[in-house]
Amino acid sequence: WDSAYERELQTFQDIGDAGEIWFGEESMVRIIRWLEKQKIPLDSSVLDIGTGNGVLLIELAKSGYTDLTGIDYSPSAIQLSEKVREKEGMSNIKLKVEDFLAPSAELSRFEICIDKGTFDAISLNPDNAVEKRKQYVKSLWSVLKPEGFFLITSCNWTKEELLDEFREGFEILEELPTPKFCFGGRIGNTVTTLVFQRK
After folding, report:
1. How far apart are CA 54 and CA 196, in angstroms?
2. Model pLDDT, residue 142
3. CA proximity to 55, closest of 91, 85, 89
4. What is the C-alpha radius of gyration for the chain, rounded to an integer number of angstroms?
5. Strand 67-72 to strand 45-49: parallel, antiparallel, or no bridges (unpaired)?
6. Residue range 9-66, pLDDT digits in tens
7. In the chain, where do the E strands start and end?
């Protein structure tokens, strides 16, 4: 991931392109619409897990959210998101190099946690993925306030699989509509977006 974000950082410095928006812009709109529909207060503390280029945080800030934090274990990703933040003039967004599987004590009591593809990336890790997924769930439980919301967008996991992964400590509130496709007579989704609440 470091080398990917180093390339995106260079591209941003060369031509001002922030790089890949995971799952497209509609995935960000879907998340923001849900927050607005639920009338989530604009001063709620929000953590973007695996923020990458930080574009989701920029969109949240443009929508009026004020307590925004983005973390990524890749220093190049945080450098890129800092540059994007500067370009957009959003100095109130906090960005930190942080490994979510071993969160620092500073990461705690968030009212909203958002994941667009980070759980997917951790799940694909060839080095003990099962244990890393369990650790992710533990980390999430420790950084999210009781009754806090967790919004996850995944292209690797179905709704049923995600319900199984997050069954301890979380309950499903809602599945957000995502694009569907038909293949071999069966209908499926290109991505899954679920909203959980911490018990």
Report:
1. 22
2. 97
3. 85
4. 16
5. parallel
6. 565 555 555 555 555 678 899 999 999 999 999 999 999 999 999 999 999 999 999 9
7. 45-49, 67-72, 94-97, 110-116, 144-154, 170-176, 180-183, 186-189, 192-198
CA–CA separation, 6 and 1 (whole Å): 8
Domains annotated on the chain, with CATH: 26-198 (3.40.50.150)
Cα–Cα distances in Å, from 29 out to 32, 59, 122, 165, 196? 5, 9, 24, 25, 18
Alpha-carbon distance 125 to 145, whole Å?
A: 28
pTM of the predicted protein model = 0.87
Question: CA–CA separation, 165 vs 98, rounded Å?
Answer: 23
3-state secondary structure of 102: coil
- Residue 157 falls in which region: left (phi positive, over 0), alpha (psi -120 to 50) or beta: beta
CA dihedral of 52, 60, 43, 117, whole degrees rounded to 10: -40
